[in-house]
């Protein structure tokens, strides 16, 4: 990285002061140490010497003059006398500040380099170009899952191996949503026929099918420990306890159209839902436990288009970011404790997905027409840090690697791209570099 970017603006223009010995710019004579009679004589002799400069003195006269001066103690070289050493001049800039002009303070981080192009681009044929679906997720075991048409594929980022998890029947598909359980082993697959399948990725075995809760496709999923929350086109949100025979434990009714976004907070206490009815609901589990049909905690109606993009802040409790569709184009920030809208930023295009950085106070958004870009924002100033382009169609889906550094994006252009947008994790910075193959280095096509 160019170190010039970290250079202090004053460094090239600043001239350091010389040492105090070379900056004796103020002298105060000591009168008690001076001979005023000799001083007057010396000044007059100097003038006489100039007036008589044309006259040539003989060698004998010059020798006599020197001997007389030595006898009379007239061999002074100075007129003014100084007894005490003058004080050193005071620097205009303190020493430690002066040094800081040449050396970056330790507390200030250098600006992070953000690659403007994707590290890898993979083919993703037959991916469904539908704003309301959720077809990409990256699990805690470092395995990425993507649904292409009727088939779910898995990539092990540690080994670069690819496998097919399941291909559903034509009458059940296509796959409309996918979400990893917190253990990184079990994955939920939502289908177009309203069913949800649970799979064990380690044994490649289907564990059970959840059916009867929804009347139409399941486009959104969210895990909260052993609770799998499903959102359907019928506007229902259902909490399923996957450990028991009759899994439905709560049903949330509030949306009048398809539920296209679901996210549990980090504490697992609050659930955010976004719908095609332009509404965001906040649901609280403590309220849910006392009602079979649960009333929302907050109903947020400021968006003017469908809300699919939802992201809970990892470093500030009760902070939720939401993104609106093509008719809205804004990212809004909410205090979910009070229901207040803290800020609203017009992004200029459809907001398809949102991801918070796990390591910095940054937010990544993916967009549709016209640029189909990923935009990195600094929070809370919402200054654009980078715009990542490469997709030629709206970037519908994003997923974040377990270490928080790499982001995978999938778009309607049938490509899957990987971006090193969030930097290097703290553990990787401290650890010695290891010879690990690049994730998915052996995969060139998803099929």
UniProtKB/TrEMBL annotation:
At which residues are the WD repeats? 168-209, 252-293, 300-344, 388-421
Tell me the Pfam families matching this sequence.
WD40_CDC20-Fz
A GO biological process of this protein is: cell division
Q: Where is the CDC20/Fizzy WD40 domain?
A: 122-419
Q: Which SMART domains match?
A: WD40 (SM00320)
| Pathway of action | Protein modification; protein ubiquitination
Q: What is this protein called?
A: Cell division cycle 20.2, cofactor of APC complex
**Origin species:** Camelina sativa (False flax)
The taxonomy runs:
Eukaryota, Viridiplantae, Streptophyta, Embryophyta, Tracheophyta
């Amino acid at each position: 990285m160019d170190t010039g970017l970290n250079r202090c603006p004053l460094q090239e223009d600043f001239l350091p002061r010389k040492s105090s010995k070379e900056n004796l710019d103020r002298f105060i004579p000591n009168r008690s140490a001076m001979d005023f009679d000799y001083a007057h004589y010396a000044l007059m002799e100097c003038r006489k010497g100039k007036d008589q400069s044309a006259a040539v003195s003989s060698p004998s006269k010059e020798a006599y003059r020197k001997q007389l001066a030595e006898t009379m103690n007239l061999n002074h070289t100075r007129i003014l006398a100084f007894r005490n050493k003058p004080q050193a001049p005071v620097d205009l800039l303190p020493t430690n500040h002066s040094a800081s002009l040449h050396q970056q303070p330790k507390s200030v981080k250098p600006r992070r380099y953000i690659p403007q192009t994707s590290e890898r681009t993979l083919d993703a044929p037959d991916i469904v170009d539908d704003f309301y679906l959720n077809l990409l997720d990256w699990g805690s075991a470092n395995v990425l899952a993507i649904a292409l048409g009727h088939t779910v594929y898995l990539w092990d980022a540690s080994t670069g191996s690819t496998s097919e998890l399941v291909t559903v029947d034509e009458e059940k598909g296509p796959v409309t949503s996918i979400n990893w359980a917190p253990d990184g082993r079990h994955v939920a697959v939502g289908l177009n026929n309203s069913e949800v399948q649970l799979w064990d990725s380690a044994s490649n075995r289907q564990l059970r099918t959840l059916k009867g809760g929804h009347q139409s496709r399941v486009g959104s999923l969210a895990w909260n420990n052993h609770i799998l929350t499903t959102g359907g086109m019928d506007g229902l949100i259902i909490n399923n306890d996957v450990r028991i025979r009759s899994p439905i434990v709560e049903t949330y009714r509030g949306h009048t159209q398809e539920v296209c976004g679901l996210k549990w907070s980090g504490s697992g206490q609050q659930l955010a839902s976004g719908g095609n009815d332009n509404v965001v609901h906040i649901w609280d589990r403590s309220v849910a436990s006392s009602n079979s049909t649960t009333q929302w905690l907050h109903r947020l109606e400021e968006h003017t288009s469908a809300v699919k993009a939802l992201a809970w802040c990892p470093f500030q409790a009760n902070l939720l970011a939401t993104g609106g569709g093509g008719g809205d184009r804004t990212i809004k920030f909410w205090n979910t404790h009070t229901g207040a809208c803290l800020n609203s930023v017009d992004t200029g295009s459809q907001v398809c997905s949102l991801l918070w950085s796990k390591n910095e106070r940054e937010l990544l958004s993916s967009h549709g027409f016209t640029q189909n870009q990923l935009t990195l924002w600094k929070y809370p100033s919402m200054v654009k840090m980078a715009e990542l382009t490469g997709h030629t169609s709206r970037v519908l889906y994003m997923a974040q690697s377990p270490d928080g550094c790499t982001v995978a994006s999938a778009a309607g252009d049938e490509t899957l791209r990987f971006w090193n947008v969030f930097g290097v994790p703290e553990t990787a910075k401290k650890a010695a570099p290891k010879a690990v193959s690049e994730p998915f280095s052996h995969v060139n096509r998803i099929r």
